[in-house]
Write a structure and sequence with these properties.
- The chain contains 14 helices and 18 strands.
- With about 450 residues, it is α/β, with parallel strands linked by helices.
- It folds into 2 domains: about 230 residues, Aldehyde Dehydrogenase, Chain A, domain 1, CATH 3.40.605; about 190 residues, 3-Layer(aba) Sandwich (Aldehyde Dehydrogenase, Chain A, domain 2), CATH 3.40.309.
- The strands form 4 sheets. A 7-stranded mixed beta sheet has the order 10-13-14-9-8-15-16, with helices on both faces. Strands 5-4-3-6-7-17 form a 6-stranded mixed beta sheet, sandwiched between helices. Strands 1-2-18 form a 3-stranded antiparallel beta sheet.
- β11 and β12 form a beta hairpin.
- α3 packs parallel to α4 and α8 packs across α9.
């Protein structure tokens, strides 16, 4: 699409929004139900597309893509009527004989920009929130997963008219063209580097934004942890989706006394989950493209590899990899890994490990594996992150009752469940004064008596 096409599309959406149809809660529910039924219709094509794009099996597609979206739709349908009602609030006595309320209303036209790592879920989940809140939306998926993109194009076109919901495809320059237009809200999921550019462009029109970014998520493993259970959950959460998850563990911080034992158990579960030759596994998601395989290969070029390291840029395969003797200045610790490589750092003193995390940019998530609740909350209270998980990894993303979002360099703004509705909603304050009684206190001329009464009422 060129600039004129995009401008015309935005104009058509603006006109449709101002008809008021999307403000109707019944209309919103109908659209969510239509989206749900269309997803079911297309699910086999989604499975096939994600296998081609990411070597992702059916179970993982359902658990991390389709199932999460359907859960979000169900949650919205169950609560939407209640959330959309005006909320009465109290008045101070000086506002005698009046009503005050907060009215949830849609922002208007929103732009949703999504990444490639969960190409279906990270595009459609925010869209569910935008629809539930009553907005029109233009959505732009990543072109790095072309098979999934084609399926989503057909799904969205079948489900919605473009004047209401439109999917815009095209090269990276398409995002620049979209950002030339004025939207009422922008929702971006991706890297911090691109997030900065999105925010800069949005600031030109003072457009509010949500930036769902990533970061180097640490996982503390304390000396009294259940190492067998810890290893199993670490391997599952780290290598899910080939490690290409913003909520994945980026590096381990392990008490030196249990490090060797933990490494042995992690090695055991990698082989148990993916076999002695992971390249033959049907359960290992591949890297999105050869360029990212080469990037990961460079990160481990001089690393002390305990396990794995095998890769093939042509097939996009990268083996689950463990790296030992990692130093803070190593390439692996300079950027979010976003792949199946797990650096293992040991610590002698927990205070030093906490300081290490606090001296780095704020991560999206801090994980703590410890049986002691006091220790869990001690680490929690002394670190910063968008959210935290105790004794597990990644799975917290599946709870619609838990808002997801970053802090600092890992982004800002929350979504999932009620927070998705809130994100795409403007809460408009309304004050309704009744006319039968009009107290003269606020009107000139001022007298000492009026002043004393008002001072008393407003103290």
């Amino acid at each position: 699409m060129n600039q004129k096409d995009i401008h015309d599309l935005v104009k058509r959406q603006d006109e449709f929004f101002h008809t008021g149809q999307t403000r109707n809660v019944k209309f919103r529910k109908t659209q969510l139900k239509k989206l749900r039924s269309t997803i079911f219709k297309y699910q086999d094509r989604i499975y096939e597309a994600l296998w081609k794009d990411l070597h992702k099996n059916k179970m993982e597609v359902w658990a991390t893509e389709i199932g999460l979206v359907l859960q979000e739709i169900k949650y919205m349908l169950r609560n939407l009527s209640n959330w959309s009602r005006p909320q009465p609030v109290g008045n101070p006595i000086l506002m005698f004989r009046a009503n005050s309320m907060i009215v949830p209303e849609p922002h208007g036209r929103v732009l949703i920009l999504s990444p490639w790592n969960y190409p279906f879920q990270l595009l459609i989940n925010p869209l569910v929130g935008a629809i539930a809140a009553g907005n029109c939306a233009i959505i732009r998926p990543s072109s790095n997963t072309p098979n999934t993109l084609k399926v989503m194009e057909k799904l969205i076109l079948e489900c919605f008219p473009e004047k209401y919901i439109a999917l815009v495809d095209g090269p990276r320059e398409t995002v620049d063209l979209l950002l030339e237009e004025k939207f009422d809200y922008i929702f971006f999921t991706g890297s911090s580097a691109v997030g900065k550019k999105i925010m800069e462009r949005a600031s030109r029109n003072l457009t509010p934004v949500s930036l769902e970014l990533g970061g180097k998520n640490p996982c503390f493993v304390t000396r009294d942890a259940d190492l067998n259970l810890a290893a199993r959950r670490i391997v599952w959460g780290k290598f899910l989706n080939g490690g290409q998850s913003c909520v994945a563990i980026d590096y381990l911080l392990v008490d030196q006394e249990i490090k060797q034992d933990l490494v042995e158990r992690i090695t055991y579960y990698i082989e148990k989950f993916y076999g002695s030759d992971p390249s033959q596994s049907q359960d290992l998601t591949y890297i999105v493209n050869s360029a990212n395989v080469v990037r990961l290969k460079e990160l481990i070029r001089n690393a002390d590899i305990i396990l794995g390291g095998d890769n093939d840029p042509e097939t996009r395969y990268f083996a689950p990899t463990l790296v030992d003797n990692v130093k803070l200045q190593d390439p692996l610790m300079q950027e979010e890994i976003f792949g199946p490589v797990l650096p293992i750092l040991e610590y002698q003193d927990l205070d030093e490990a906490i300081a290490l995390v606090n001296n780095r940019p704020t991560p999206l998530c801090v994980y703590v594996i410890s049986p002691r609740r006091s220790q869990q909350w001690d680490i929690f209270s002394r670190t910063r992150s968008g959210f935290s998980g105790f004794n597990d990894s990644a799975i917290l993303f599946a709870n619609p009752n838990l808002p997801v979002g970053g802090k600092g360099m890992s982004g800002f703004g929350k979504y999932h469940g009620k927070k998705s509705f809130d994100t795409f909603t403007h809460y408009r304050s309304v004050f309704i004064k009744k006319n039968k009684i009009d107290l003269p206190l606020r009107y000139p001329p001022q007298t000492k008596c009026k002043f004393e009464i008002i001072r008393y009422l407003l103290r």
